[in-house]
Each structure stands twice: as C-alpha cells, then as structure tokens.
Design a protein that fits this description.
Blueprint: H1 3-25, H2 28-36, H3 41-63, H4 70-90, H5 98-114
C-alpha cells in the first residue's frame, strides 16, 4: 500500500475518532447544532458512534497487512460526510460545506485506493 494513503488513512482515522467522541460525549457545540438542524439528540450519539466505529476500522485496517477493514470503515465515514453535506445544504449553511465535502472526498480516495480500483 502506498505510504501517502497510509498516512492519509491514519490522519483521517484520528480526526474522526475526535469528531465522533465530541459528539458522543455531548460537547455543547454539537448538542446545539443537532438541535438547530432539528435532529434528535439520539441521532447525534448515533452519528458519533458511527464516526468512531468507521475511524476504528480505518485505523485497524491501516495497521493490518491486508487492510480489509478499511473498506467498511471508509464507506461509513464517506456516508456520514454525505449526510453532513446534505444537512448543510438543507439548512442553508453553505459556508460550512467545504469541510465535510473535502473530508468525504479524501475518504473516497482512501476507499478507491484500498479496493484496488485506483493505484495512487
């Protein structure tokens, strides 16, 4: 596996562990965001748990020889980022869209690289 992709996977994995943890423990910023978006607080917890799970799979796959765990983890995280982009579009928070869009594209690059569809 390409060293650049391994570094990207590790950085994204660490970032999503942090993102998910702050949602799961209920940092006020996230509590207020989910309230403003009219999502229930249980959905904030599910989102955080999904981010932590996906990040754990990506990190574990980065450390393993075959990297088989990266694919399901990358799919989870890319899906969460798609949801984030759609949420910001729906709530007209277009200024926030670049972050989940870039994170989602980077996760898709990891996914494509790990499925053998593209060699970077």
């Amino acid at each position: 596996m390409n060293t650049t992709i391994q570094i990207l996977q590790a950085l994204l994995g660490i970032a999503f562990v942090l993102f998910g943890t702050t949602k799961l423990i209920g940092v006020p910023f996230h509590v207020e965001n989910f309230r403003r978006w009219e999502y229930p607080q249980w959905f904030r917890r599910v989102t955080g748990l999904t981010e932590i799970t996906g990040a754990g799979l990506v990190l574990a796959g980065t450390l393993s020889a075959q990297g088989q765990l990266v694919t399901p983890g990358a799919v989870l995280l890319a899906g969460v980022m798609c949801g984030a982009v759609l949420t910001h579009l729906r709530t007209r928070e277009r200024h926030v869209i670049p972050l989940p869009l870039v994170l989602g594209v980077m996760m898709m690059a990891v996914l494509v690289s790990n499925t053998g569809l593209l060699v970077i």
